[in-house]
Each structure stands twice: as C-alpha cells, then as structure tokens.
C-alpha cells in the first residue's frame, strides 16, 4: 500500500510541499478547490502552477473543480502519476478523454453520499477510483465509515478491470483500522501527517497498520 500526503490543511503550502519532498511519502496529493464544485477555493490555475514548482515527488492530483482542463493545462509539464476528477462534474467524459490523451492515469472520485453504481459506466476507462471518506473541500474532517460498502463493491468486481483503489479523507492512526484487509492500493492522508513534526513517523504508523 502506498501513501500520498495532502497539504490542503497546512498553513503554508510551499513549506509543507518541501517537507513532503523530504519524507518517505510515495506521492504528493495535490488537492485543488475551485470555489464552484466545492465551497472553498485554494488555487487559480496559475497559482497552482506556481506553487507546484517546489514539488520533487510524483503528483497525485485531485481536482475538486468543475472545469479540470483549465487546471490541467497549467501543470502539464509536471511529473504527474494520476489526475483525478469527480464523477459529478458537468464535462466528465471530455475531461477523462483529455487526461487519457496526455498519457496520464485517469482517476475518478466518488463522494460519500453518491451511489457507487454511478461508476459502472466508467469501469473500462478508469485507472484509479478515489473513494472519498469525507465530503470534499476541507482537510481535518472525520472519516465516514459508511463508505466502506463502496470499497467492498469495488473489490468484488476488481479482477475484471484494471483500476486501483484509493481512499481519501480523515485517515489517521485510529480510522486506518477500518481499512485493514480492504485491499487498498493508495491512502491519502493530510492533517494526521502534516500537523506532526515527524512526517515519516506518521507515514510508518499508517503503513504498519494495514
Ligand atoms: C478533502 C481532500 C483530502 C483531505 C485529506 O477534500 O480531498 O485530500 O484534505 O486531508 P485529511 O487527512 O486532513 O482529511
Ligand atoms: Zn484529496
């Protein structure tokens, strides 16, 4: 299991990214909020480009935005592993095709209240399914155990497709126990790691718990 670290809840994005660079995190999880798809706004496309200049690890980009292409065009030349968009955005198909055309992995995120069966139409094209275990938009929220049903559903069908399973939101040394034996490929954790002085210690706690 891999760990991506989110800097969304940190006070200083650039400093936090520099600390993630030095840690044993597998990826930097880049949360982008546009003030439209989610209430808060943390980046314009240009500011996103500028902020990521300090990043030295592969990026796991999570776009909580209505128009992913505006943001993607600004970060094309970064070292990106996956770009994740949300199931319920207006131009989902166009966004998926665009990410594909760039040769990048396509992630699709599903919110706690959404029916997992909405993903069925995209199972052939999706590389990473991001199960949101909090409502999107803010770091530091509590893990919602009900989303575990979605993971069970995905595990039942996983061998017919090529997607990996990722879980994002509220993951700490306690809630991680919900994910034991759930066959998770990637967990995303923010405040549990970035509020600590020792990122590697926190990452190890999560990795050792699964
Ligand atoms: C929620 C974000 C998550 C979140 C993770 O909108 O997508 O990536 O910030 O941070 P924690 O671990 O603090 O919930
Ligand atoms: Zn995220």
Question: What number of domains?
Answer: 1
Please tell me the CATH architecture by its name: Alpha-Beta Barrel
Distance between the amino and carboxyl termini: 8 Å
| Largest β sheet strand count, sense and barrel closure | 8 strands, parallel, barrel
Low-confidence stretches: none
What would your notes on this structure say?
Helices cover 27% and strands 21% of the residues. It has a single domain (2-208), classed as Aldolase class I (TIM Barrel). With 210 residues, the chain is of the alpha/beta class. It has helices spanning 13-22, 45-51, 68-72, 92-101, 148-157, 191-194, 199-208; strands at 2-6, 27-33, 59-64, 80-86, 105-110, 128-132, 164-168, 186-189. The chain has an eight-stranded parallel β-barrel with strand order 1-2-3-4-5-6-7-8, surrounded by four helices. Bound molecules: D-xylitol-5-phosphate and zinc ion. Residues 6, 29, 31, 62, 168, 188 line the site of zinc ion.
